[in-house]
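The authors assume throughout that readers already know how a fold can be written as discrete tokens. A single example would do more here than another paragraph of explanation. An entry of this sort, consisting of the sequence and the corresponding backbone structure tokens, reads as follows:
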Amino acid sequence: MFSKQKVVKYFETVRRMYNNTTMQYQLDTLGALCKALECEIGDLLEIIEEPGENGEKI
């Protein structure tokens, strides 16, 4: 089972993901979340293209 420290770490990660305040995603954390939730990374993340300065997609 997970230690209390890891549960707190993953809770904070999920909270930041939910609130869309995460700046980067650690692969080991995403892997652990997918394993715990029995899902794929695509179930957790979605790429949303936003227009650049000149209107082009980035």
